[in-house]
Amino acid sequence: MTVSEPAAARARFRAGERRPTAGWAPGYAQANLIAVPRDLAYDLLLFAQRNPRPCPVLDVSEVGAPTTVLAPGADLRTDLPAYRIWEHGECVAEVGDATAYWRDDLVAVLIGCSFTFERALLDAGVPVRHLEEGRNVPMYRTSVACRPAGRLAGPMVVSMRPVPAPLVPTAVLVSGRFPAVHGAPVHIGDPAALGITDLSRPDFGDAVTVEDSDVPVFWACGVTPQAAVMASKPAFAISHAPGHMLVTDVRDAAYAA
Amino acid sequence: MTVSEPAAARARFRAGERRPTAGWAPGYAQANLIAVPRDLAYDLLLFAQRNPRPCPVLDVSEVGAPTTVLAPGADLRTDLPAYRIWEHGECVAEVGDATAYWRDDLVAVLIGCSFTFERALLDAGVPVRHLEEGRNVPMYRTSVACRPAGRLAGPMVVSMRPVPAPLVPTAVLVSGRFPAVHGAPVHIGDPAALGITDLSRPDFGDAVTVEDSDVPVFWACGVTPQAAVMASKPAFAISHAPGHMLVTDVRDAAYAA
């Protein structure tokens, strides 16, 4: 069962629960985490500035401080349901508690997540299949290259939601009101246009049912920095596990334009 | 006389013309410049991320490269009408050509400018007094502190446009469509609420006529990083002179939400 309050959600994850956060604390923004040593933090902020659709920055921690203004009292090392530990571009561990891996020189960057506008989609009558099916959202690496920044380069990652064809314009307009959490889709329709060959085999998260009357709709995704880590192989980074987000105390409406 | 094409405007400034750029190349975005050594660039990007209303970043150059994707072919050392050279928080020179001061370790950050939405204000019937009067826009340091970042802290700077009272809502809505160039006003009315004691004595730019039926309307301003330089006293920085902007090749409409 999901919980409705952000602090309660974080307490559950801190206590060890490991599951995707879609549908948790509806009405509150969720965020991607990418933490890198201070030495790489300029390149990461520059990468985000140059790729604002996949990487809208919501907050940046002080060096070494696992805290954020988005969720006062939260500990970024423990309060997400799952983390990935990266060394030279390889995921060397996926853990529920990153405390043992955290370093005093890490800067934690929190990036907007499209889960944030899912309540608005539901309110507008747009079904969200992965919520219906109790799964993680499917995410795919694309053939679209991000604009490089310093030592960071890599492909854009997208999330996909199958939307009934008559509701696609509604999905565009509703999500477009939330530019800080990826905003309007980056692509509608043929997955091959993004270099995606098989929707049933996502690179991250779970496959979901695509009905015959559905159109696949693709949004830029905050897993993109992880794809840049995989491609660029910096010595060290910590990220959330895809779909296992920070549940913040910020209302989703705060990010509505 | 102003000119209508960005490249022609930049050529005039490169050739030595020194005057504020309000009204130049209408329909094209203009940008603030703040260039700092790479060593301070992370703090500057972080300051911008934490203060997005005054510091919306439009582009960041490669280290040492006085170029920008916003105006291919432009030379950031020469193509603005005037520059300020900063040492330890003091403006040590105001020059029309910054080439002699440029350094190989400088990162040039270009920040949105409210001149960009002035054509939209005019199109909506909102008069722009400094354009009517052929002056620079008046700008003021406020009592509103920016959120600090690393070695950078300082007050928010605002630009002010007197708007006839019945047109204030229009001015809000029109500028609000341009969040990347400061967006909606940060304050409407009493200057004292921002710690401004005398509208006729701006900290930057020129005073303009405020009619009895006008309401002073204040927008966050991209001179804010200069105020941070004045307050924080980093060893070196180069900025544009207030109101003497980079005229870019990007259409103003590109920044309309």
From TrEMBL, chains A, B:
Task: Write down the Gene3D superfamilies for this protein, in alphabetical order.
Answer: PSTPO5379-like, PSTPO5379-like domain
- Which key words are in the record? Lyase
Cite the Pfam families for this sequence: D-Glu_cyclase
Name the domain of life this protein comes from: Bacteria
Task: Output one GO MF annotation.
Answer: lyase activity
Record carries keyword Nucleotide-binding? no
Q: Does the keyword Transmembrane apply?
A: no
Q: What is its EC number?
A: 4.2.1.-
Fetch the PANTHER family from UniProt.
D-GLUTAMATE CYCLASE, MITOCHONDRIAL
Q: Its family?
A: Belongs to the D-glutamate cyclase family.
Name the chain's protein: Putative hydro-lyase Val02_31970
User: What does the record give as the organism's lineage?
Assistant: Bacteria, Bacillati, Actinomycetota, Actinomycetes, Micromonosporales
